[in-house]
Design goal:
337 residues, alpha/beta, seven-stranded parallel beta sheet, two-stranded parallel ribbon, 13 strands, globular
């Protein structure tokens, strides 16, 4: 099977994707800088599981390290690249904007350049539902304009899509951008709502409920994200010969370029999300109601029709099933420490 380079392999989605592709028979070259944006020990625990696999190798490396990235591509000649490494988080982008430019812009440029000089069959990269920004038409469709981001994080993800298109156009690199919608599940990030809520409730601390609970999110279970990526990997985009610049569809192109949403297409109220978690934990949360955070949006909702048509898959894990699996993992992991 093919060599797949996964950036952010010790991260939440990168870990799950690495496990899945190893089971599928791929050889995985994982890179991660193991930064301290959140608990490094959690990243190391994920990595320890991956390093037990024969066909997994790991390299601690920053995307911004051009020489290191170039050397890695030259040595391993990956046929597939899945770029999941990024400085994540909407709110943190208000505090540390330069981290987002370094990793998400300069780092992604290094991946594009390495993919150009060591030609790859398919570059898949993480975008985000955040690119929809100020859009209010629901559901969010890949054919919609996404020119009004409301956070620097979102702006860097939109920039990734533009940069990828440029390299697809100039150098015929097949690129696929994936707009993930509020991913959750076992081994999740400690800065995400489900982890924060669970941790606070278990420690008898209040949870912060933004926009006074009047939020809707298209919560998407991590295994559904991984299933979508796995199906897309062998389907590198082709040039769309019917693409019309006068009626330009932003999700496709005359270049070998595509963008997809991966979301559950079933937005849930934040208060229901909390209720399901409370039921699973058997504890009622203490709630601190707060206003909407700067850079945040009140609702997300994915139109996944393009993904369904292309790979015959629609995410469908229920909130009850996904939260139960997260809570089971959380209890097991933190009991074993």
């Amino acid at each position: 099977m093919k060599n797949v380079l996964i950036t952010g392999a010790a991260g939440f989605i990168g870990f799950h994707l690495s496990q899945r592709l190893l089971k599928e028979g791929y050889t995985i070259i994982g890179i991660d800088d193991l930064n301290d944006y959140y608990d490094v020990n959690l990243k190391k625990s994920r990595l320890a599981l991956l390093e037990q696999e024969e066909h997994f190798s790991f390299h601690q490396l920053k995307l911004e390290d051009k020489e290191g990235i170039d050397a890695l591509f030259s040595a391993h000649k990956p046929q597939i690249v899945v770029n999941l490494a990024a400085q994540a988080g909407v709110r943190y982008s208000l505090e540390n904007p330069y981290a987002y430019i370094d990793s998400n812009i300069s780092g992604f440029l290094n991946i594009l350049e390495a993919s150009r000089h060591n030609p790859v069959e398919h570059l898949v990269y993480a975008s985000s539902s955040s690119v929809y920004g100020g859009n209010t038409k629901m559901p969010f469709a890949v054919s919609d304009s996404v020119d009004h981001p409301v956070s620097l994080y979102a702006a860097t993800k939109k920039s990734n899509e533009l940069m990828a298109h440029t390299y697809s156009h100039l150098y015929d690199i097949p690129t696929t951008g994936l707009r993930f919608f509020t991913v959750y599940g076992p081994w999740g990030r400690p800065d995400m709502a489900l982890f924060l809520f669970t941790d606070a409730i278990m420690k008898n601390k209040p949870i912060k409920v933004f926009n006074h609970g009047k939020m809707k999110r298209d919560f998407t279970y991590v295994d559904d994200i991984v299933e979508g990526i796995t199906r897309l990997i062998p389907k590198a985009p082709q040039k769309n010969e019917d693409w019309d610049a006068n009626k330009a569809d932003p999700a496709t192109s005359a270049a070998p370029y595509k963008v997809f949403n991966i979301g559950n297409s079933s937005p849930e109220n934040l208060m229901r999300y909390i209720e399901v978690l409370e039921k699973e934990l058997g504890i009622e949360a203490q709630k601190e109601f707060l206003p909407l955070q700067p850079g945040d949006v009140p609702a997300t909702y994915a139109d996944t029709s393009a993904l369904e048509e292309y790979v015959n898959f629609k995410p469908n894990t229920s909130l009850e099933e996904g939260i139960a699996k997260f809570v089971a993992w959380y209890r097991e992991y933190y009991t074993s420490l």
